[in-house]
Design goal:
- The protein is 41% helix and 23% strand.
- By secondary structure, the chain is an alpha/beta fold.
- It has a 10-stranded mixed sheet with strand order 2-1-3-12-11-4-5-10-8-9, with helices on both faces.
- The chain is globular.
- It starts with a strand and ends with a helix.
- It binds nicotinamide-adenine-dinucleotide.
Length: 358
């Protein structure tokens, strides 16, 4: 029997509650599909500061490096707001991404049928379904380039530099091509090649790789046009490939289309298939400990883990289908509806319902 080793970082606030539900669903899925999962729970963020004095203990890094995959809840909260900047919970998050060399950020924007009303877009624009994957480069570009502030002849100026090597572009482009092959085989690369040299290298590199993936249809869009097309006709997109800064902005725009922060999963991938999977929301300290959190983003993060790190695509589909069915009968407070026949449930019961539908 296949046996996977998962490092679990529950984190702070609602982290432990939502991760427990995701584990419940993963255990049920493993049982159905005939594989086993071992969990190693480690500390990250505020919980790690309380126990060890630092947000990212070495034991956490070692466990993640030895694992097949990492599941994370969320970190942070008012309790640790007075910590110095380099010892805050969020430092643990950046630190673990860096330690694992996670250079690809995957953010799906999906609308589940029963939640169509939650989208700010009109139903005729959303169409029958919406399922976009933004693949964002995470460790290069302008956020990591040369920067500075200087004053010459009394005039102050500041600069940041966008620099990408061919290797960095190739590495992230291959993630996006592989992703497109597992999905609807359409890849849209987004850049600003009409203005930026770095974008022209980006576009040329994507075009050079394209013949290696003949089944993937490749297109290019300028980032300003892409921002417009996302709200004009989002269904035209399958996989969007883009740089760190453009991806930061476009992935937030795309995720808003789905309407609810409690529904959105994400993955950060490094070399060798190791991935870190987490909901995009934070630790929601305002509702922590009340059994009110929506666990579906974390449960959907497990589906991404099964698909992209553990090569269990059918198990991933089962979880996504169970989430869609669960929404027909039950909702947590953040996605509540007045429809008859749909119950308001807590975090644990939502986990039970999804697990029961696997
Ligand atoms: P947040 O995402 O935690 O919460 C924003 C709002 O959304 C809150 O009203 C919250 O109750 C609600 N919400 C979030 N997730 C929900 C869920 N699953 N179910 C129901 N409602 C949900 O953002 P914030 O309030 O800006 O940040 C709170 C803490 O989380 C801060 O310390 C912040 O630094 C941290 N944070 C961590 C991460 C992470 O771990 N990846 C990401 C963002 C923020």
């Amino acid at each position: 029997m296949k046996n996977y080793q998962i490092t679990v970082l529950k984190g702070d606030g609602i982290g432990p509650e939502i991760v427990d539900q995701a584990i419940k669903v993963l255990d049920r899925t493993a049982q159905k599909h005939g594989f086993a999962v071992n969990y190693d729970c480690q500390l990250l963020g505020g919980a790690a500061i309380d126990a060890t004095g630092v947000p990212l203990p070495q034991a956490t890094v070692d466990s993640c490096k030895a694992a097949d995959s990492v599941l994370l809840g969320a970190v942070g909260g008012p309790k640790w707001d007075s910590q110095p900047g380099n010892n805050r919970p969020e430092k643990g998050l950046l630190g673990i991404r860096q330690a694992l060399g996670l250079y690809a950020n995957l953010r799906p924007a999906v609308i589940f049928g029963p939640l169509r009303d939650a989208s700010p877009l009109k139903p005729e624009i959303i169409g029958d379904s919406l399922d976009i994957m933004v693949v964002r480069e995470l460790t290069g570009g302008i956020y990591f380039g040369d920067r500075g502030t200087e004053e010459v002849n009394g005039v102050k100026s500041a600069y940041d530099t966008e620099r990408y090597s061919v290797q960095e572009i190739e590495r992230i482009a291959r993630v996006a091509f592989d992703m497109a092959q597992k999905r609807d085989r359409r890849l849209c690369s987004v850049d600003k090649a009409n203005v930026l040299d770095s974008s022209r290298l980006w576009r040329a590199t994507v075009d050079r790789l394209a013949p290696e993936y003949p089944e993937v249809a490749v297109s290019h869009l300028y980032v300003d046009n892409c921002a417009m097309q996302l709200v004009r006709d989002p269904a035209q997109f399958d996989v969007i490939l883009t740089s760190n800064m453009f991806g930061d902005i476009l992935s937030d725009e795309a995720s808003m289309i789905s309407g609810s922060i409690g529904m959105l999963a994400s993955a950060s991938l490094g070399s060798g298939g190791l991935g870190l999977y987490e909901p995009i929301h934070g630790s929601a300290p305002d509702i922590a400990g009340q059994d009110a959190a929506n666990p579906l983003a974390t449960i959907l993060s497990v589906a991404m883990m099964l698909r992209y790190s553990l090569d269990q695509p059918q198990a991933a589909k089962d979880i996504e289908a169970a989430v869609a069915k669960a929404l027909d009968q039950a909702r947590t407070r953040d996605i509540a509806t007045k429809e008859t026949g749909v119950r308001l449930v807590g975090c644990q019961e939502m986990g039970d319902i999804v697990a029961g539908l696997i």
